[in-house]
Design a protein that fits this description.
- The complex is a heterotrimer of chains A (161), B (123) and C (93).
- Chain A contains 5 helices and 3 strands.
- Chain A has 161 residues and is mainly alpha-helical.
- Chain A has 2 domains: 38 residues, no CATH class; 104 residues, Ribosomal Protein S8, Chain: A, domain 1 (2-Layer Sandwich), CATH 3.30.1370.
- A 3-stranded antiparallel β-sheet of chain A has the order 1-3-2, with helices on one face.
- Chain B is mostly helical and 123 residues long.
- Chain B has one domain.
- Helix content of chain B is 67%, strand content 0%.
- By secondary structure, chain C is mainly alpha-helical.
- Chain C has a single domain, classed as Helix Hairpins (Orthogonal Bundle), CATH 1.10.287.
- Helices cover 86% and strands 0% of the residues of chain C.
- Chain C contains 3 helices and no strands.
- In chain C, α1 packs antiparallel against α2 and α2 packs antiparallel against α3.
- The longest helix of chain C is centred in the first third of the chain and has 29 residues.
- The chains are: A mainly alpha (161), B mainly alpha (123), C mainly alpha (93).
- Chains B and C meet through α1, α3 and α4 of B and α1, α2 and α3 of C.
């Protein structure tokens, strides 16, 4: 089963994407979408990606809500900085010690940090677990470290490990 | 072409103008911020809520006009959310690499591991 | 009446997006360094994509949606290629 359908979630996701793109639901389109999803998931099996297993869906939901609220808040903060006559006064780099080495968790963490205006993931050292982040309003370093490790990383570890 | 309900048009106006304003503020920030690393934060305004506002407005308009759910615009949101972190991470790493190889003092140095040879200045 | 609200808000949004495109072009021309120009080009692609979405609302067809998707993909790929070039091409390894 696993060899015939290497990535079932990816296959159905691609089929759904195909249906949305075609803007119609008919038997032919569903079969075509499933065929495309099957072919694509078979090709991605060659990449030997780690499987994605969500262990605690409700933590994932709370994380999504938390991230959306954070993105809204930092949108307002960066928009304010762009309008204010003085501009950003305290932009700077910052080191965050991470505990996880799981590639899935790191990928999601990178997406969250970079999608949030005001923080950009710059560099990650896999040996020491040291993450370099650039922050636009770096006033309190400990607060940012607390946000990244406790608010995002801890929840992601709960979800995927 | 049928008319829109009033709430629909007002919601549309708020979404589309709000999204465009956020995008414009991001681009103004990119024009005004003093250093490259500060500027790299600015376009994320346009790629997060600015883009979401305009795309939601488009989905709302076509849904109300055509009388059936038109959701394919959501694909744009998914696509941008997935791709923006990749481009910004690559760009910031490239800029860091260039600054380090030029010996810029303001950027943090790479972590040195015992097995790595120490960097020779001026190379 | 309600279509007039849509019309005017769309007009205003397109003006705002046009100014945003001018800002990115200004940054692309003025530099000062190559990474600033690449960043501005990436932002230009995104704003251009949003502009196409508003154009498709104005014309009333969703044909422009595919155009916007293709522009987004081209922007992504070209920015990644340019960033790779900045990292590998110009700097002597």
């Amino acid at each position: 089963m696993r060899r015939i359908f290497p990535h079932p979630v990816l296959m159905f996701g691609l089929a759904l994407l195909w249906l949305i793109l075609q803007q119609q639901i008919s038997a032919g389109q569903i079969v075509l979408g499933l065929l495309i999803g099957f072919g694509a998931s078979f090709i991605t099996a060659r990449l030997e990606l780690d499987g994605l297993i969500v262990r605690r869906p409700w933590v994932l939901l709370t994380l999504i809500v938390v991230v959306i609220i954070d993105i809204a808040r930092s949108n307002a903060a960066v928009a304010w900085l762009a309008m204010s006559p003085r501009g950003p006064q305290s932009a700077g780099f910052m080191h965050v010690p991470l505990t996880t080495r799981n590639r899935t968790i790191l990928a999601f963490l990178a997406m969250i940090i970079t999608a949030t205006p005001g923080t950009v993931w710059v560099e990650f050292d896999e040996e020491t677990g040291d993450l370099l982040v650039h922050v636009l309003d770096l006033i309190d370093v400990d607060e940012w470290v607390d946000i990244i490790t406790n608010r995002y990383e801890r929840r992601l570890i709960e979800i995927f490990e | 072409m049928s008319d829109l309900p009033l709430w629909g048009s007002i919601a549309f106006a708020i979404l589309v103008i709000g999204g465009a304003t956020l995008t414009l503020l991001g681009c103004i920030g990119m024009l005004r911020f003093p250093s490259f690393y500060a500027r790299i934060h600015a376009p994320t305004l346009g790629t997060s809520f600015g883009m979401v506002g305009i795309v939601l407005a488009s989905a709302l308009y076509f849904t109300l006009i055509q009388g059936r759910p038109v959701l394919h615009e959501i694909l744009l949101v998914v696509f941008i959310i997935v791709t923006t972190p990749v481009t910004l991470m690559l760009l910031s790493r490239a800029a860091l690499h260039r600054d380090r190889s030029e010996g810029d003092e303001t950027v943090p140095l790479p972590n040195l591991h015992p097995k790595d040879p120490p960097p020779t200045p001026g190379e | 009446m309600t279509l007039a609200i849509v019309e005017y808000s769309l007009f205003l949004a397109q003006i705002l997006l046009g100014i945003a495109m001018l800002c990115t072009v200004w940054r692309m021309v003025s530099g000062p360094r190559a990474q600033d120009r690449v960043l501005a080009l990436d932002a230009f692609y995104v704003v251009g994509m949003l502009m196409l979405v508003t154009v498709s609302i104005r014309i009333g067809t969703s044909i422009f949606f595919e155009v916007a998707l293709v522009i987004g993909m081209l922007g992504f790929v070209s920015t990644v290629a340019l960033a790779k070039f900045l990292m590998r091409g110009e700097v002597i390894e």
